[in-house]
Specification:
By secondary structure, the chain is of the alpha/beta class. It has two domains: about 130 residues, Alpha-Beta Complex (Aspartate Aminotransferase, domain 1), CATH 3.90.1150; about 240 residues, Aspartate Aminotransferase, domain 2 (3-Layer(aba) Sandwich), CATH 3.40.640.10. The strands form three sheets. Strands 2-10-9-8-5-3-4 form a seven-stranded mixed beta sheet, sandwiched between helices. It has a five-stranded mixed beta sheet with strand order 1-13-14-12-11, sandwiched between helices. The chain has a two-stranded antiparallel sheet with strand order 6-7. Pyridoxal-5'-phosphate binds next to α3.
Length: about 400
Amino acid sequence: MTHARGRQFLHTPGPTVMPDRILRAMDRPALDHRGAEFRNLADACFGGLKRVFQTESPVLIYPAAGHGAWEAALVNTCSPGDVVLMCETGAFSDWWKEMVEAFGITVEYLPGDWRHGADPDAVEAHLAEDKARRIKAVAVVHNETSTGVLSRAAEIRHAIDNAGHPALFMLDVISSLASMDVRVDEWQVDVAVGGSQKGLMLPPGMSFTAVSEKAFRASQSARQSRSYWDWTALLPDGRTPAFTCTPAINLMFGLREAIDMLTEEGLDNVFARHARLAEAVRRAVAAWGLELWSADPREHSNSVSTILVPDGHDANALRACCLDRFNVVLAGGLQRLNGKAFRIGHLGDLNEPMILGTLATVEAALGATGIPHTKGGIVAAIDYLAGE
Ligand code: PLP
């Protein structure tokens, strides 16, 4: 494509489309981060984040990518030699596991087939076996962005309770926050880790950590070396978040705007919109005769869909066609799914015409690249949305 006209349709599952309102909110001079105006901004962000995380616990803001908040969760609560129970759900659980191990923490990794979420029964059975209570935390990726599979967090909570185990519950909500229901308090999540560039519709570069009282208590005795991430300085009284470094001021202008937008729409409506658009995608996939990677309808993600192409065909060729000919960006299959699957991110600032435009483009690209399919996915999506 020599001249790209119109807007690029960005359908990676983060970064996501940034609404003009957010771009405009950030387009202003910085201010003194030790002054009163910044304090107002920070209060609005800290207060708003609690509502988005559905928690009364403090939510810290790190000028860092999601990996930073992953690391903060670990180094504040665990000591070298501790054991963490994790569940294999896909590429992101693998990468988080590698990070945990890099800190000298032992991971007991419950195997998974990537097509299902974390198995609550397996978690319960494993914790029940841990008579010596060696396991310090259960760490789960809520929405596995590589597979489009959502783990049933409430059931994991019940599994921990049923086993009567005192482990902390850590949940990566990076690609579910502000697009699917995340109930930090109801699920008694001790450390919830979020990021800016997904449902919050912001640029990358900021991450969030909701810290329960129990997690904060654990941090007081955790012996992992830490400095930048240390909750002692960032949460001096365990309740009131602070900054030690210069905050990401302009991203926070955007965050305040994002929270306003989510509040105006209403979180329940945000979740319903994501559910509706995701279902339109799934209807199209079924009508094309392609296979959704997520195997259990209870666990289909409403923020990203991973779609298999038939054996002998290249999902990356399809993506290249979408980008080069139509200026639509899809995400690729990660690791074992590379070339075998493509992903449609459908989270953030999206509406029906945007998703229909993308589905129509995918249908055109399926034809252009010779991938066997049945025409009419777009009609199935239209019919579904018309009936909603
Ligand atoms: N966890 C999940 C579920 C993610 O989707 C991502 C990023 O896509 C991350 C962690 C890592 O976040 P970041 O790339 O901001 O470090």
